[in-house]
């Protein structure tokens, strides 16, 4: 069996993993330790080389999303010691940016992250998110969203305990609450900044007017939206607004929920509960057409002596110097492969060529089920007494 075949098979073990546990309702194993055996070129360093700025916040050029470390898309439970091992190995290889959320678990992912980073907490950036309506006593998910200021304050106090820290470096509103003015949310965050419990803040999947209003009230450090070769929606308006306002951008699902790794082919069918089974971009009608992106990635991977996932991540970083992807995984080999993407470089001519090729492929199907997409691009209500800006 070739290393290429072994790597493909290993990637396919992730097909059940999808933010299914959180992505579907909320949106919202042993790893193989031998990196070289996973088909990654020997000259490609397994390290997150370089640093980038999200506003004034400096982080590693590639971060680590820990969403599935309590429960994968397949709904399997990863080995907790191995998740700690992945988190700590990532730090040893230069990763300083770790992304979690209250909703992941709920709560359990923050606990895993807090345990994992405890030996080097002061040398990294922890990002987490509030905003879903989660009962703070039981952890039970209640309907809808909750960004009431009193709830935010309670959530943050509980986050600090789970993360075993005294401050959150970057706190996002996970989704915009259509019942709470963003000015009230910003006011609550401002109080938390004054108390030193939060250092920076951001928004996820928000409406653009809400982003502008939030930034005017309290400067926003970063926006987190889905963005990859498979979903280029932010290019139309979100990225230009971020550039205009000096806000960093963090793509979630930068590998297209595993699609851009080459793990999915025309024969793939998804496990019950896997959100990708309800996304029309992966339907039997659309999947064969969309696989043109994977063919393109494999061609460029061969050309750059890299892996398809590394090319996909490097392409994202090529778009803007203030874009920091946060690929998530529960497998050591994949984490090492992903952070090696920062070593992939494109000449200006290569970048232009690849951009043309990517944009020539029109992805068919919707990125999310309608019930989940409804939580994106939401505008917060106006604060009473304020006129539109």
UniProtKB/TrEMBL annotation:
<protein>
    <submittedName>
        <fullName>Aldo/keto reductase</fullName>
    </submittedName>
</protein>
<feature type="domain" description="NADP-dependent oxidoreductase">
    <location>
        <begin position="63"/>
        <end position="357"/>
    </location>
</feature>
<dbReference type="InterPro" id="IPR036812">
    <property type="entry name" value="NAD(P)_OxRdtase_dom_sf"/>
</dbReference>
<dbReference type="InterPro" id="IPR050791">
    <property type="entry name" value="Aldo-Keto_reductase"/>
</dbReference>
<keyword id="KW-0560">Oxidoreductase</keyword>
<feature type="signal peptide">
    <location>
        <begin position="1"/>
        <end position="36"/>
    </location>
</feature>
<dbReference type="Pfam" id="PF00248">
    <property type="entry name" value="Aldo_ket_red"/>
</dbReference>
<dbReference type="InterPro" id="IPR006311">
    <property type="entry name" value="TAT_signal"/>
</dbReference>
<dbReference type="InterPro" id="IPR023210">
    <property type="entry name" value="NADP_OxRdtase_dom"/>
</dbReference>
<keyword id="KW-0732">Signal</keyword>
């Amino acid at each position: 069996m070739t290393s290429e075949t072994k790597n493909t098979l290993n990637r396919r073990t992730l097909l059940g993993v999808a933010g299914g546990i959180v992505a579907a309702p909320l949106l919202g194993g042993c790893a193989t330790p031998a990196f070289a055996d996973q088909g990654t070129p020997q000259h490609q360093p397994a390290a997150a080389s370089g640093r980038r700025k999200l506003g004034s916040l400096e982080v590693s050029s590639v971060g680590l999303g820990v969403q599935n470390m309590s429960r994968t898309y397949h709904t399997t439970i990863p080995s907790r010691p191995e998740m700690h091992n992945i988190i700590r190995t990532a730090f040893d290889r230069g990763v300083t940016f770790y992304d979690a959320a209250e909703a992941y678990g709920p709560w359990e992912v923050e606990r895993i992250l807090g345990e994992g980073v405890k030996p080097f907490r002061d040398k990294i950036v922890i990002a987490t998110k509030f905003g879903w309506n989660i009962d703070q006593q039981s952890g039970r998910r209640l309907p809808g969203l909750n960004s009431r200021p009193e709830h935010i304050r309670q959530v943050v106090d509980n986050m600090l305990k789970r993360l075993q820290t005294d401050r959150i470096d970057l706190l996002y509103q996970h989704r915009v609450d259509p019942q709470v003015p963003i000015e009230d949310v910003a006011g609550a965050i401002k109080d938390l900044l004054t108390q030193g419990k939060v250092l920076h803040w951001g928004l996820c999947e928000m409406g653009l007017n809400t982003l502008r209003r939030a930034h005017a009230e309290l400067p926003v450090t970063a926006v987190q939206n889905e963005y990859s070769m498979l979903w280029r929606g932010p290019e139309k308006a979100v990225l230009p607004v971020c550039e205009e306002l000096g806000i960093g951008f963090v793509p979630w699902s930068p590998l297209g929920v595993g699609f851009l790794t080459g793990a999915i082919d025309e024969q793939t069918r998804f496990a019950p509960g896997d959100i990708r089974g309800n996304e029309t971009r992966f339907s039997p009608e659309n999947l064969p057409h969309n696989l043109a992106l994977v063919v393109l990635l494999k061609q460029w991977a061969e050309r750059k002596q890299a892996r398809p996932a590394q090319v996909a991540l490097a392409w994202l970083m090529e778009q803007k110097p203030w874009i920091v992807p946060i690929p998530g995984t529960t497998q050591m080999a994949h984490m090492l492969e992903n952070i090696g993407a920062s070593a992939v470089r494109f000449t200006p001519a290569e970048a232009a060529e690849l951009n043309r090729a990517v944009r020539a492929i029109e992805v068919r199907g919707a990125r999310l089920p309608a019930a989940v997409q409804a939580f994106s691009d939401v505008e917060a209500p106006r604060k009473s007494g304020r006129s539109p800006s």
